């Protein structure tokens, strides 16, 4: 079995659900739930929703109660009231109690929403800024991007929280504004020629748009499984990257249903606009980081910094 990560566990579960149904997917994620790190609240979410969809109502309620009552997690009020997978649970009084408890916790969390940045200082000469993917957080992001050998690190976490420790970039302008604000702070210590901006999935989208719109200036970008649904809109602006000397390194799996095609399109557009770019398309990889990401990351950083 290939190396299992938090992200690959979720992706493989979705794949099994689409192919073999909710029961098989539930059995799979339950078997491996304790063998990865990541956001345990999200793993519980997959488990109880798949169990409910498979008709295992008692198991679904037990998992949801464990997540909320014992672990202290919460899930979005609108999601709990609307997701079709949970339809079979809505007649239970215990479920309604959990919904109300989650509503309170969600209100508390959103009343204190703010972006967050974590800094790791090393050489003080170069800086890698990394943005997490949707429904992720700094802890997950750090596990991958801290593999860079020498540069200082800055991990930016969105203010937009969707459930316990699950942050998203749904509001693009808000996300770009938060990146810009942190960039201005970080730029007091680093020049654009020393900064590399990286992102995974929706975080890569925020990074890409911010640079192409010239809201931030960097030496280069490292885009991992970039989710770029509006790439056509940004295609005419790619000349800015060549003009500013911005390099781009793209990493994506050929089994990534959401990001593979737009990654290929991006690579083609970058070449058409004579933007310095390199890419690594990973055979068999779903929406995830490759197992040799440390080597890929340092290769990408070396490419960006080499004149």
UniProtKB/TrEMBL annotation:
Domain named KANL3/Tex30 alpha/beta hydrolase-like: residues: 180-290
Gene3D superfamilies: alpha/beta hydrolase (3.40.50.1820)
InterPro entries: AB_hydrolase_fold, BCE_2095-like_N, KANL3/Tex30_Abhydrolase
Domain BCE-2095-like N-terminal: 5-110
Protein name, UniProt field: Esterase
């Amino acid at each position: 079995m290939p190396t299992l990560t938090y992200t690959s566990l979720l992706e493989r579960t979705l794949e099994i659900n689409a192919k073999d149904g909710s029961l098989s997917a539930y059995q799979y994620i339950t078997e491996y739930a304790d063998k990865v790190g990541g956001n345990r609240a999200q793993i519980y979410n997959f488990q109880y929703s798949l169990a409910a969809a498979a008709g295992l109502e008692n198991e679904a309620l037990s998992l949801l109660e464990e997540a909320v009552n014992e672990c202290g997690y919460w899930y979005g009020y609108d999601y709990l009231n609307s997701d079709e997978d949970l339809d079979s649970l809505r007649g239970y009084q215990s479920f309604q109690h959990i919904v109300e408890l989650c509503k309170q916790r969600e209100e508390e969390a959103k009343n204190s929403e703010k972006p967050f940045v974590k800094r790791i200082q090393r050489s003080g000469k170069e800086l890698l800024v990394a943005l997490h993917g949707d429904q992720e957080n700094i802890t997950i992001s750090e596990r991958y991007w801290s593999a860079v050998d020498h540069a200082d690190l800055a991990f930016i976490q969105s203010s937009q929280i969707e459930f316990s420790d699950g942050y998203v970039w749904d509001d693009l302008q808000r996300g770009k504004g938060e990146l810009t604000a942190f960039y201005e702070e970080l730029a007091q210590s680093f020049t654009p020629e020393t900064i590399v901006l990286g992102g995974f999935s929706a975080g890569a989208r925020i990074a890409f748009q911010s640079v192409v719109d010239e809201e931030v200036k960097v030496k280069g970008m490292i885009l991992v499984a970039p989710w770029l649904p509006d790439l056509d809109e940004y295609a005419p602006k790619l000349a800015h990257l060549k003009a500013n000397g911005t390099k781009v390194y793209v990493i994506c799996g050929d089994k990534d249903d959401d990001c593979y095609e737009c990654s290929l399109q991006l690579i083609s557009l970058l070449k058409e606009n004579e933007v310095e770019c390199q890419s690594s398309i990973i055979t068999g990889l779903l929406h995830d980081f490759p197992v040799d990401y440390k080597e890929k990351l340092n290769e990408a950083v070396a490419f960006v910094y080499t004149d």
